[in-house]
Amino acid sequence: MGANHRTLSTYVNTLRRHDLWVDELAEPEPAPEWAAKRPDAARYPVFLVLSCVKGGADRRPPPSADG
């Protein structure tokens, strides 16, 4: 399997063109067995996981006053 590297702006602009807004974003760490084989590469994010909402509607309740 090959890798297709894209810039973050490519992802964000594509989402916006489709009226999608980022609700949550995560960059999970690679599996330990992968990181053990490639310690230098494991320092950088490999995966990008996004949760988006259509039309920019924030479906989460607003944060409370106590944070």
What does this structure look like?
This protein is an alpha+beta fold. Helix content is 24%, strand content 19%. The chain has two helices and two strands, in the order αβαβ. The protein has helices spanning 8-17, 32-37; strands at 20-26, 49-54. The protein has a two-stranded antiparallel sheet with strand order 1-2. The longest helix has 10 residues, at 8-17. The protein is flat and about 40 Å long. The model has no long low-confidence stretch (mean pLDDT 80).
Specify Rg, calculated over alpha carbons: 16 Å
**Structural class of the helices, strands and pairings?**
alpha+beta
N-to-C CA distance: 43 Å
Q: Could you say which overall geometry the principal axes of the C-alpha atoms support?
A: flat
Total strands: the figure is 2
The helix content, as a percent range, equals 10-25%
Low-confidence stretches: none
Give the overall average pLDDT: 80
